Amino acid sequence: MNKKALLLFVLFLLMFVIFAVRLFYIQVIDDSYKLNAESNAIRKEYVYAARGSVYDRNNKLLVTNVAAYDLLVIPNQTAAFDTAKLAELLSIDPLRIRTRLEKARKYSSYKPSEVVTQINQRDYASLQEWIHYFKGFYIQKRSQRSYPYIGAPNVVGYISEVTEGFVQNNPNYIMGDLIGVTGIEKSYEDQLKGQKGVRYVLVDVHNRVKGPFSDGQYDTLAIPGSDLISCIDIDLQLLGEKLMQGKRGSIVAIEPSSGEILALISSPTYDPNLLVGRKRSKNYTQLYIDSLNKPLYDRALLAEYPPGSPFKLINALIGLQEKVIETNTTFTCHHGFHFGSLHVACHCGTGYPIALETSISKSCNNYYCSVFKRIIENYPNANLGMDAWRKHVMSFGMGNFLNNDLPTGRRGFVPSSEYFNKAFGYQHWKAVSTISLGIGQGELLLTPIQMANMAAAIANRGYYYTPHIVRSVGGTVNENYIKPHKTTINPEHFEPVVEGMHKVFEEGTARASRIESIQMCGKTGTAENPHGQDHSIFIAFAPKENPTIAISIIVENGYWGSRWAAPIASLMMESYINDSISRPELVQRMVDGNLDDEYNKQALELAARKLKLLAK
Amino acid sequence: MRESRTIFTHLDWFTVGIYLILVFLGWINIYAAAFNEVHPSITDMSQEYGKQLFWILSSIGLFVIILFLDGRLYEKLAIPIYIAALLLLAGVLVFGTTISGARSWYTFGGFSLQPSEFMKFATALAVAKILSAKEGAISKKERWLTALIIALPILLILPQPDLGSALVYFAFLLPLYREGMPAWILTALLVISILFILSLLFPLSTMILGILGLLGIAIFLLRKQKRAWIWLVLAAVSSILVVLSVDYAFNELLEDRHRNRINILLGKAQDPKGIGYNTNQSMIAIGSGGLAGKGFMKGTQTKFNFVPEQTTDFIFCTVGEEWGFVGSATVLILFTVLFFRLIYLSERQRSSFSRIYGYSVTSILFLHVCVNVAMTIGLAPVIGIPLPFFSYGGSSLWGFTILLFIFLRLDAYRMQIL
User: Fold this and answer.
1) What pLDDT, on a 0 to 100 scale, did the predictor assign at position B9?
2) Which residues of B touch A210 (CB under 8 A)?
3) What residue of A is the nearest CA neighbor of B332?
4) Which member of B178, B339, B362 has the closest CB to residue A4?
5) What band does B261 get if pLDDT is binned at 50, 70 and 90?
């Protein structure tokens, strides 16, 4: 054979070897082409699971879903497109599309990211006609939250898109997923969210879906979230919000026999639907910047107040338990409690020896300062006395988290001997140094739900169930909420205190709020505070025997207990027990009444203080 | 009858077998790439796979005719065939239809014909005819004539424009080399190619400084040899001229699309969405095939049109994606074996016409496979050139069939030549 033919043979072999090596490299060794092929032709679509619904205790729908649409983008599939047109279709700012696209690109160039979420039906209709002009964009249906009742925003909570930081720490979530931020939406996120389904579809070069990948064998179905039954009575909740109109404060109502929260009102309130849909962020900002009313602040769970006179009930119980008083022990009030140079004023106006029941119905400060002094002095030193007292108080669930199913909460504050040792120096203090604890003032701080729980524990004559907001998840009840928590007070000591609370309605400070049909028990409170007028406080339960509702009410700067809190409590209990209200004129008075003057004055004072600070 | 029996006994059935296998594989890969659910039948004439079947069947008819014609006819008619093809090629510049930017087609109704595909075998015939005209050394006149025969088609194809088809004529360097063209021409071309690529990669000033530097070193090393410097300076000057002309050609003569493709290939520009898209998608398709491929009709990249020109220039992607490394290597082996066989057949020819023609056939096929596969696996810029016997298209299949079977006819006839 010709020698020159050999050169050709070498060339042929060279070609074969070079190509074979190259093919082996890109087909067998380098995996990146396979990944690219997947991102090219296989699109992972999420099938959003319907979030669970929430019902109230009477099976009224509190939270449900309506259809909405998301626009997603896969950045490396986009081509040049008309940003202005897309912005017009979505009725948003073109700049936002650009920034979202930039963000999406940063997140992943081949995974889908949201451009705009929760597009309503009308925008969706026009967008759908144009979507094929926008390569790399597609629409995904999902559901949007809807709240049929205009109220209870702190109970139901709201949902929001997860943040980038959150996604990084929680791989179960992807950008664009929604998550509960407050209320039931937050605390029952795991149960409500369900499980996203995944669908793998094949798409062609024009991003058109060509069918399922591998006949759908890798697809998973979306598992809808569980439905919840809340303990809330939405009618009672809405009534409470109505009564609290124009006033800041909170109402917490609990069913004593179960710990179920019947109403959890934080006033002022807002429409939970404001935090759904496209206007969400605008509305949120408006709610957020209202630094005076703080509508997003759940007062019922987070606000800490000195409890004032209702706390006298606890001191009465501790006194009986510690055997420093008996039901017929009397003290005579001379316009207050006097000890050396210490004077605690009292307006009970008795001036004759009064026993326990009257001391409650008249809310005598002298009586409880004396009881408190006896409790502390019952022990060899104030330290031991204070700690014994504190142990009793904390058995009512005060000074600690309630460990319930609410997403937020505060401990409140029950001072200990240690605290006073620090404040006054080791053992440089006595019962009288801390005497204001006797009347629920001083260092003591309670949240409204703790006060309601206290009312429930008294209503139960010595125990309480952890207050909770959800009765059952998909039919199952949480074991933790059916175990009673016993207080340190023997049951027999409760009867005289309950009698006293009954007298509060019959002849005492809340007699104006008494009604014939229900035997109510309560205790007014007027808590001093540094911001302005005293808080109007009231705790109550009804009926006296086998109570079905325990309640705490705080109206910030509402002057005194019987002015706002007691009538509202009375109306709430009547409505809940009788399912009707016999005093529409009282309802009207409560609804019309507002504390705007007081709040405006505070706002002005605050502004003046700030100005002064600035001037300095 | 006796004549035909002779043909079939002397026909190289090995080559015919490889040809049929390649054509068949091409057909089923076109089916997989162009599959249309509305017309699922592989014989559906409204689809490319149905049409390709028609081209295959007509090609078989064509080679039967070629085989039955007198073997001597091709040598006799070489020049008239060449001239006819050249006229067709010239005519397309005037009467042709422009398809995707190139005026390369005659269209008659729904049927289109690409004359450059027929120019290939016509040129091969003409080159073989001229070079085999006289026994012994090739005269100066014949050399120039050969150069003209090869250059004319290039000159007519470039203005279409169709760089790929023009490039094919470089294949004739191999038969020319076989027939005695000095090796220094091949060497010089190799050096020029290297200079070409380097001058695309580096700026002009760097190239010239580099050449001058090398010149200095070479003169220093060879200082003992008299007159060496003259040759070295000459080599340097011509190298600089090459570099300058490449610079000029690249910036002034090439079209933007070619410039971009070359830049991307050289890694000087990156653009996976635009011009680089073809190569990128082609490599994704082939690379995603893995060792054994995704299976027949299971390829997502070619089926869903991610790869452009998937039935014609990029048909190898479907092979790579659906049949994997095993399938693509098999196809390459088939081609390599075919080339070996054709060179073997060429070398056993008694007439130099047959031998030269055989070399030309092999070289043309070789160049097509090289450029086409290199393009799909990202080793060459995207140059529109079909994969012989595989790519969809009547003109190219007919062209390659005629090219190959004229040679097989000549081979079967070789014994009759004294």
Assistant:
1) 82
2) 303-304
3) A16
4) B178
5) low
Q: Which of A295, A276, A277 is nearest to A286 (CA)?
A: A295
Distance of CA B253 to the CA centre of its chain: 22
C-alpha dist (Å) from residue B89 to A480, B95, B404: 91, 10, 21
Do A36 and B284 make contact, defined as CB atoms within 8 angstroms? yes
The complex's ipTM works out to 0.87
Q: Using CB atoms within 10 A of its CB, is residue B330 exposed (0-12), middle (13-18) or buried (19+)?
A: middle
Nearest residue to A136 (alpha-carbon basis) of A207, A61, A233: A207
Q: Report pLDDT digits (tens) over A514-549.
A: 999 999 999 998 888 777 888 999 999 999 999 999
Mean pLDDT on A485-496: 94
CATH 3.20.20.70 correct for A234-601: no
Nearest CB to B325: which of A18, A27, A202? A27
Distance from CA of B182 to the nearest CA of A (A): 12
Picking from A5, A15, A203, the nearest residue to B343 by CB comes out as A5
**Which tokens hold the place of B314?**
């990029």
Domain boundaries, chain B: 2-180+271-416, 206-235+237-253
Tell me the per-residue pLDDT of A230-255, one tens digit each, with 9 for 90 and over. Answer: 999 999 999 999 999 999 999 999 99
DSSP state of A43: E
Residue from A564, A28, A504 nearest A250 by CA: A564
* Contacting residues of A for B174, CB less than 8 Å apart: 8
Q: Is pLDDT at A600 greater than 50 in this prediction?
A: yes
Q: Which sequence spans correspond to the domains of chain A? A: 43-230, 234-601
Q: Which CATH class is domain A43-230?
A: alpha beta
Per residue in A141-177, pLDDT tens? 777 888 999 999 999 999 888 888 888 888 888 887 8
